Amino acid sequence: MQENYKIEFKSILNDKLEKEVVAFFNNREGGALYIGLDNDGHPVGRIDVDDVQLKISDRIKNNILPVTLGLFEIRTEMVENVVVVKVVICSGTEKPYYIKNKGMSPSGCYMRIGSSSLPMAQNMIDEFYAKRIHTTLRSVIAPRQDLSFAQLKIYYEEKKLTLNERFESSLELLTPEDKYNYLAYLLADENGNSIKVAKYAGRDKMDLIENEEYGYCSLIKATNAVLDKLKIENITRTKITSTQRIDKNLVDPLAMREAIINAIVHNDYSREFPPVFEIFSDRLVMTSYGGLMMGQSEGDFFSCSSMPRNRELMRVFRDVGLVEQLGSGMTRILQAYDKSIFEISDHFIRVVLPFEQMQSLPEDENVTNHDTNVTNHDTNEGITLNECEEQVLRYIRENANVKQINCGEELGLSTRQVKRLFQSLKEKGLIERVGSSRSGSWLIIK
User: Who's near 220: CB < 8 A, 6+ residues apart?
Assistant: First the structure.
C-alpha cells in the first residue's frame, strides 16, 4: 500500500488534518486517511487510538463546511500487527468543502492532485459552488409538520443509543428555518411514502399475483419489512446427490440485502418516487430513482467508493445497523455478480438479479425446491418451503398444540407474518387446525 490520489498517510495527528480531509471531500471518489503510518506505509509505533479517533471526529465536524455528518467513518485497522486509525471519506455532494476559519477561498479549499492536497483555484471554487446541489433532503420542507418519531426512537434504543431532546437538530431533521425537513418526513411515524413490492406469475407484467405496499410509516420500519418480505421470497433450492447436498438460493442473500438497502437509501426522494421491487418467475428487479449523482461517472459508481445521495439518511441507517460501512454495499454485490446486472439511465438505476438455475448444478437424480433444512424430513419431499416456513414448521413439531401468538412471540415474527405462514403451510397440506379459533391449536399432519 502506498500514497496516491485516494490514500494519504500521517505519522501523527497534526494541524494538516482538515486540509487533507477537505481535499478528499472535494475529490471525485473520496479517499482514506491513515494516522500512525510513515510515508512508506509502515507503522511509526503505538498510538492512543481512542483519543485520536475522538479528536478526528470533533475536528471534522466542527472545522469543515458544509456539514460533513454521514460523509466520513473512523475505523481501526491492523497494519504489521500494529493498530492504526483509518478515516474513510466520501466524495461530498455539496462541493466545494472548505476549512471553516479560512473560508471558501484557495487557502480554505483543497483538491487532491496525485498524492498531494493542493489549494483549489478560485475559478474552480466558483464553478463548484455554482453547481452545488441545494435540494438535499435536509433543505426541503416536509409536506406536514405534525410529525412524531416513536418508531425511530425504538430502533435507536435497540442499538443501545438514546435520542435526546435535541435529536431533531443532531440528526439534521430541521431546515434552517427550524421546520421539519423531508428527511424528518421519511423517518416519521406517519407519512405518505410507500415502497411497492410486486410479484408476477411469469417473466412479464401480464399476470400480477401479489402487490403489497410497505410504508406510510418510518422508512426504517418500511425497509425492515421489505427485507423480511424478500428474504421469504428468496427460497433455497436443494439438490441431493449420492455424495453431497447442494443448496442454492434463488439469488445471493448478501448481495440481495445490499442491493435492497442501496435502492432505498440512495433513492432520490425529492422527486417523490419511492423505489420499486418486482419479483418475476426468473429474476428479482429493484429500481431506484435519480440516476447517477452530479459529477459521478459509471466508473466512479462501480469503483466501490461511496458517494451517498442522501448522506443524512445514510447516517441514520448506519446508526440503526442497516448499513455497516461506507462503500461496502457495492463491493459485496460485485463479489456475487458482475456489472451487467445494473442498468443505469439519467433517471433511474435498476438492478436485475437473475434466479439461480438448477441445471447449472451437477446433474443427479434428486432435485427439490426445499429450503435449507426441509429435505431432512422425508415426509415433506417435493414440497417447497422457504426459511420462515421451515422455522414455523420446526416450532410446531417441537411444541404440541401450538398457537399462532406463541409462535410469533418465540420466533420474533409479526402477527401478519405468522398468519400468512400458517396459511401457506395449511395450503401445502402440512398442518391442520384442531378445535375452535379461540381455544384450538395447530398440528402437523404430514
Answer: 151, 152, 155, 187, 316, 317, 320, 322
